[in-house]
């Protein structure tokens, strides 16, 4: 076994490195979806292990050939040893990585300089190993030289892609481009932009919203073909690669405010789309952003990128053709080494050719064949259900508690994934569209952008009864209180299943999904929910519910629905509820649920749905673009879809809110 390992060690390393490269090439494209945690962990290990395995292969190659005379006199393997030395540039090409995964995390793009230093040292080691080990022979020198050139180009291409996707570079380039456009007085967009003020923008933007309201009502009854909308969006993908569209999208991710003229164009075009067309338009933009930040595609569609791919492909063919002319028997080459070399060279040609299919956006697996949880989903986490599992733990929860990983089990075991993203997006888009029809001034526009429930309560004439829940509470506490109250109200409301009530049932389902999703953000993505969010509020509210259960005798296991109904019909808050964590969240939720339940059924659903739409829009518009781009590497968040929806609907982003000038005071206020 020791002798076999000494003979096959380098071959095993070369083939293992090739296997990891093939695995990364095929599997890395699935990172844009919510793939299982085990599959994502395998991609992460392959991403880290591929470089380590290639470096280990170079070290093994150097150790085997550090004494050239001993290697040549070891039983006639001198010619074969030169074949092994030719694997040094192959390891270098593997260190260049695959086009489908240039970065695993968004931070890798910011550390492109560190990658440059590491790649330079790796290239130097590879050249040193080759020069110390090469002694000519039957293998022509042009084969390894061609492979070295291909390896240098692949490493340079990867560094170029990392640097292009760096947030710091994007900010510098976008700032310089804006400065040049502002100096160019002949630019048509800038001329229009100079005449568009905030008041003029609001006035022009509200006109298409008013005209499209009736159009939307007529077309909502039509049976939209989802596959037809997907085909139309696929045909329009190439239009997104235009430099202006890509630059505008990247400015959004680096928190640059968009000019009013550009927002007006986005708003008019987006309002004219049907529901599925609008949804797939957002998905195309998110896919484009993912490819820009995490793959080499951001540098592949340029002229230099196409030239580099063509040159790499021709170099791989040249190396394979030069080695193919050898006669292994006459040259004294080992057949196993020759077979491994053929596998390495042919695989390099195959992967370079497959890159062309990847650049053409060909999918390995059709989207409709993926399970729902691997597509864009709305993650669901219910606080009352979480408390029920804590009160009556399941077998996986008991096992996880022993190992201290209860939160991890809740994250990957009990989270639900609803594939109703398109319906929820249309629910939010319709609300924003109706809101645009009510805007008349710049003040209305800013109040509408800052809403987190007040707009709906004012429209439904219940600000006096419910206004305290959105104005007097911090945002994270308001999310907890409204989540518990929504669960109580919707579980206590029996919505008739008649076809005439389809809109009410859809509103109830979307409201519950948004509520559960924001509770997921509170626990697992608090930075995206709101800067300064207290993640401990989830544990505090859960403890209050458990304390409320502890005051009663409950031997039987209650379902989430029964538990919500019991909490809604409970007595006045007890001392355990008031002191359980110092929050009174359960008491406030009962008070809020009681006030909402006194409304009639239709008004109740409008209030709940409107408040949750405003809350998720409030959260999305205050999340940094860097966090949205970071979430794309882990499958993306539904909040990013909402954030991009608000951008296309002409609403304010975080940069607009932080840098907007103060509105002039009214004349009567100025006189005082």
Automatic annotation (TrEMBL):
UniProt keywords, alphabetically: Membrane, Transmembrane, Transmembrane helix
Spans through the membrane: 12-31, 37-59, 299-320, 340-360
Cross-referenced Pfam families: DUF4220 (PF13968), DUF594 (PF04578)
Compositional bias annotation for Basic and acidic residues: 213-225
Region Disordered, annotated ranges: 208-236
InterPro entries named among the record's database cross-references: DUF4220, DUF594
Domain of life: Eukaryota
Domain DUF4220: 44-392
Name recorded for this polypeptide: DUF4220 domain-containing protein
Species of provenance: Oryza brachyantha
């Amino acid at each position: 076994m020791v002798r076999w390992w000494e003979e096959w060690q380098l071959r095993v390393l070369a083939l293992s490195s090739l296997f990891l490269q093939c695995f990364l090439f095929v599997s890395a494209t699935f990172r844009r979806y919510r793939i299982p945690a085990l599959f994502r962990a395998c991609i992460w290990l392959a991403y880290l292990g591929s470089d380590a395995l290639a470096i280990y292969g170079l070290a093994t190659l150097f150790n085997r050939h550090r004494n050239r005379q001993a290697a040549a006199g070891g039983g006639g393997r001198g010619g074969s040893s030169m074949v092994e030395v030719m694997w040094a540039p192959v390891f270098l090409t593997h260190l260049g990585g695959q086009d489908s995964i240039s970065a695993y995390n968004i931070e890798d793009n910011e550390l492109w300089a560190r990658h440059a230093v590491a790649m330079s040292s790796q290239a130097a080691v590879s050249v040193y190993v080759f020069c110390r080990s090469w002694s000519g022979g039957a293998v022509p020198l042009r084969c390894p030289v061609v492979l070295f050139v291909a390896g240098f180009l692949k490493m340079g291409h990867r560094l170029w892609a990392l640097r292009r996707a760096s947030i710091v570079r994007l900010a510098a380039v976008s700032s310089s481009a804006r400065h040049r456009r502002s100096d160019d007085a002949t630019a048509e967009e800038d001329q229009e932009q100079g005449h568009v003020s905030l008041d003029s923008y609001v006035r022009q933007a509200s006109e298409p919203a008013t005209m499209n309201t009736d159009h939307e009502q007529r077309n909502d009854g039509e049976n939209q073909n989802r596959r037809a909308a997907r085909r139309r969006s696929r045909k329009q993908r190439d239009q997104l690669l235009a430099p202006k569209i890509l630059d505008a999208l990247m400015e959004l991710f680096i928190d640059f405010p968009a000019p009013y003229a550009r927002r007006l164009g986005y708003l008019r075009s987006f309002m004219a789309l049907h529901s599925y067309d609008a949804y797939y338009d957002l998905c195309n933009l998110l896919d484009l952003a993912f490819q820009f930040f995490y793959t080499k595609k951001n540098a592949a569609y340029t002229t230099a990128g196409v030239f580099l791919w063509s040159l790499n492909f021709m170099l791989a063919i040249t190396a394979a053709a030069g080695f193919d002319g050898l006669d292994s028997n006459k040259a004294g080459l080992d057949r196993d080494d020759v077979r491994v070399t053929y596998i390495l060279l042919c695989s390099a040609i195959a992967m370079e050719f497959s890159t062309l299919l990847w650049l053409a956006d060909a999918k390995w697996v059709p989207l409709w064949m993926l399970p729902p949880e691997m597509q864009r989903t709305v993650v669901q986490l219910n606080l009352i259900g979480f408390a029920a599992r804590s009160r009556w733990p399941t077998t996986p929860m008991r096992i996880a508690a022993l190992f201290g990983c209860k939160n991890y089990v809740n994250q990957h075991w009990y989270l639900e994934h609803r594939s109703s993203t398109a319906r929820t997006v249309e629910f939010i888009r319709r609300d924003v569209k109706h809101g645009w029809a009510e805007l008349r001034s710049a003040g209305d526009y800013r109040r509408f952008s800052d809403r987190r429930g007040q707009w709906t309560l004012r429209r439904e004439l219940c600000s006096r009864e419910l206004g305290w829940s959105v104005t007097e509470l911090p945002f994270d506490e308001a999310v907890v209180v409204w989540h518990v109250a929504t669960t109580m109200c919707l579980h206590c409301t029996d919505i008739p299943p008649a076809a005439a009530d389809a809109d009410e049932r859809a509103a109830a389902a979307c409201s519950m999904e948004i509520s559960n999703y924001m509770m997921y953000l509170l626990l697992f993505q608090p930075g995206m929910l709101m800067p300064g969010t207290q993640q401990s509020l989830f544990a505090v509210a859960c403890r209050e519910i458990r304390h409320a259960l502890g005051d009663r005798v409950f031997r039987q296991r209650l379902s989430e629905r029964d538990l919500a109904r019991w909490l809604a019909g409970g007595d006045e808050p007890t001392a355990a509820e008031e002191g359980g964590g110092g929050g009174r969240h359960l008491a406030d939720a009962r008070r809020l649920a009681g006030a909402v339940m006194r409304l009639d059924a239709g008004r109740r659903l409008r209030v709940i749905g409107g408040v949750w739409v405003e809350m998720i829009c409030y959260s999305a518009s205050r999340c940094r673009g860097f966090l949205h781009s970071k979430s794309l590497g882990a499958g993306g968040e539904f909040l990013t879809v909402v954030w991009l929806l608000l951008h296309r609907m002409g609403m304010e982003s975080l940069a607009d809110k932080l840098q907007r000038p103060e509105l002039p005071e009214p004349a009567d206020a100025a006189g005082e």
